[in-house]
Amino acid sequence: MAALLGRRLQRIAMITAMVCMAAPAAVAHQSQATGGMAVTVHPLATQAAVATIESGGNAVDAAIAAALMLGVVDPHNSGIGGGCFILIRLPDGEFVAIDGRETAPAKATRDMYLRNGEPDSRLSQTGPLAVAAPGALAAYELAVRRHGRLPLRQALLRAAAQARAGFVVDRVFAGRLRAAAPLLRRFPESRRVLLRRDGSPYAVGDHVEFPELARTYEAVAEHGVDWFYRGPFARRVSEWMAQHGGRLSVEDFANYRAIERQPVRTRYREYEVVGFPPPSSGGVHVAQILNMLECFDLRELHRRDPAVMTHLVIEAMKRAFADRAFWLGDPEFTGVPRGLVQRDYARELAATIRLDRATPVAGHGTPPRARSDLFSRHTTHLAVADRDGTWVAITQTINTTYGSKVVVPGTGVVLNNEMDDFAIALGVPNAFGLVGADANAVAAGKRPLSSMSPTIVLKDGKPVLTVGAAGGPKIITQVVLTIIRHLDLQWPLEQAVSRPRYHHQWKPDHVFVERGLDETLAKRLEQFGHAVVPTRSSGVTQAIRYRQDDQGQPRWIGVADPRAAGMARGWPARVPVRAAPSPLPATTRK
Ligand code: GLY
Hints:
Elements: H1 2-19, E1 29-33, E2 36-40, H2 43-54, H3 59-73, E3 83-89, E4 95-100, E5 114-115, E6 118-119, H4 121-125, H5 136-147, H6 152-165, E7 167-168, H7 171-184, H8 188-194, E8 207-208, H9 211-223, H10 226-229, H11 232-243, H12 250-255, E9 259-261, E10 264-268, E11 271-275, H13 282-293, H14 298-304, H15 306-327, H16 343-350, E12 380-386, E13 391-397, E14 455-459, E15 462-470, H17 474-488, H18 493-498, E16 502-503, E17 511-514, H19 519-527, E18 532-535, E19 540-548, E20 554-560, E21 567-571, E22 574-575
Parallel strand pairs: 17-18
Antiparallel strand pairs: 1-20, 1-22, 2-12, 2-21, 3-4, 3-13, 4-9, 5-6, 7-8, 10-11, 11-14, 12-13, 14-15, 15-19, 16-17, 19-20
Helix pairs in contact: 2-3, 3-5, 3-6, 6-9, 13-15, 13-16, 13-17, 14-15, 15-19
The protein binds glycine.
């Protein structure tokens, strides 16, 4: 077990670098517009969203068009072989949370990753046993059918045309493919579809095409999502699984349902924060951390001493993640206490924070009515907001880079490795170093716990900000940091997203600090008693801000994190924004 944990720590550092994407670049891509805004990690996906608006769609249609396009041009992060959470704010103010999280196969068992009594996380991360039933497509279909204006077919065909025509490889695509190539080569179809003929990864400037994926999208466009869940796609995948020791079957596909859930809504100062409920841990812990921080005047603390404020935020993160490890899981299988997001409970936890030193957190706390008041029943984030007041925040994933690394022949679809988001054994960290307990143990038909945190912030009942991120558990802390930097410290959104971040997830008991973070600040954190561990990149955030300008005209400001090569673009006409210099180290950026 000790050797396993040692390997784990090395792997977490590697995953942090790989999954949390490429090195930070100097300047975020940002845009301002008067009619609405789309922001994603890839220009072609952002353009798909804008083109969808121009052809009569609303923000839901545009977001799903971007989501499907990302499955083509950003296949290392997400796709229809994975899952997603979709948070929608409708023009009448209603919120919809669509859970397209993957589910464990019916044949999944608690001991499926044990070999000779020892947990083997290689099995939950790579290959057939890593794959859970994909949910993204069911969630897209539900979102568009209920809340869109255009047929899903249109978005599918647009993405299919791109897959067929191909596109030019950028630095992010090339970097992630290079990192994943050794594992992709183990699976003949993945090697054939995703790598060059000689098995080497495509490089920046190469042209890639995905004709099999185009055919899959076209078949869904022609026959509907049943072709995927109850037709040839499901049959082909389950036959391959049966031949290769997997457990996913046609029944798992047929039984898959996207679920509409009640979002988590909490107040933070004069704002209301709307987040995604379990099986996301994101909504709960973004709210819980903000509730703790609300007990303090962050702006004043930061003005007096930024190191004290940073230390305070880290202590709040640590306490929330200790609760995450114990209480959080699929609400259909485990009781997730609502008390976790109560202000009284946050005050109790906040009272244990000392401003002069790091305090050890032995384990989880006990929120009020923990057994009775329950939530009822490497990743990418995108956001679209339109003039009619529809806002959409989608975080979607196949988990780590290229998921399970499996592409079933003829499908072109990269299958997820979301099974690794379960606690495969008590206290054994997953690819992100997260530990879990019974609440997140493997069980047939269960959804693995997620950190994905699509978030929409309201003021006086109107949306003013949406933020979400990629980066495993660092998603939660990126969302919190963007909110407090922008709303409390009043940094411009671009700075709130771009400037170096820090992250604590309780175990390991380290503060991960992103390179570029002020060295004096890092030293001060050590003096408080934190174990400071440098990390290359802390994830990728996308955000949209709405405000009225001096003339009372609407303005949407979109920001795509400089750590990826994304794009913000609004409509009808872009209002150029002069990029503010960022303190991040400069690297090349397209
Ligand atoms: N696969 C990462 C997450 O859902 O948190």
